[in-house]
Structure prediction request, 323 residues.
Amino acid sequence: MTQPLPQLDAGGRLRHLITLDGLDPGLIRELLDRAQAYQRPPGQPPPRGDDLRGWTVANLFAEPSTRTRASFELAAVRLGADVINLDVMLSSRVKGESIIDTIYTLEAMQVDVFVVRDAEPGIIEFIARHVGGHVSVISGGEAHVSHPTQGLLDALTIRQHKGDLRGLTVTIVGDIRHSRVARSAHRAFTALGVGELRLVAPPEMMPEPQEFEGARRHVSFDEGIRGADVVMMLRIQKERITVAKPTDIERYHENYGLTAARLATAKPQAIVMHPGPMNRGVEITSEVADGPQSVIRRQVANGVAMRMAVLAHIADARRRRAP
Ligand code: ASP
Prediction:
């Protein structure tokens, strides 16, 4: 059996970021602190740095993305890198070139970091095994499996609004079974010692029993939201659902949609999160999505800061390896 790819270098710093599995809580905290330092109040110019001066970052996204791709691009540019965006779906894979040939081609053009999103589990790690020793690979979302920078930015958002995750009750609601966002959130929140993690989903959207260790499962939203500090809503991952029966959207909204009435049963200052893209009127009403308890736009802002933090950390680590 192939050994899992080590993401860390000999100094315990990130060379790649493919999953949050097994990452030391101290390293997660350090990345959150670094992202926190990139925060600027709205209206002020965004922070910039030289950490990636002379570097080239390639965004290879084989699945649709708005926030993740744009934020990786802005993060890299604000740190001084050159950036190329390739829609790999439309390019060489369709022409029959293997993904590895695409990687080798771009590496020959002196790409230093690949940010990859793909619908096939394992592809991102496969790429990381094939790149040169100085090149890093960051996941921009892997199938239903993981979305590490999203997990980090979600943890950062909670920390900013609620402080320490210890003692908090976090409820994740919706299509958890097919959600990489939920899997990475579980990793990040657990590493940071979350008080109670609740999963709310209809039976067909619940993950396998061996997954999400330590989380409590609720089929009833009304039960799972009671007294929560954080309510994180998810989109139905239609592109990953293979069962023939389509979801009855009206019933879904009735049972699993976040409305103002439901939110009123969480803690009074509970925050509402959603990774986007949102289906207003399905998993969340506009009243809640745009309401005073929503931190959804804060998550987007944190996405840029978090990706800057990860890129800057990886660049530092490379400089330390090769002084
Ligand atoms: N944008 C998130 C993701 O890439 C959530 C979603 O698509 O529903 O997984």
Summary: Residues 141, 147, 180-181, 235, 275-276 surround aspartic acid (CB under 6 Å). The chain has a mean pLDDT of 94. The first helix runs from residue 25 to 36. DSSP finds eleven helices and nine strands in the chain.
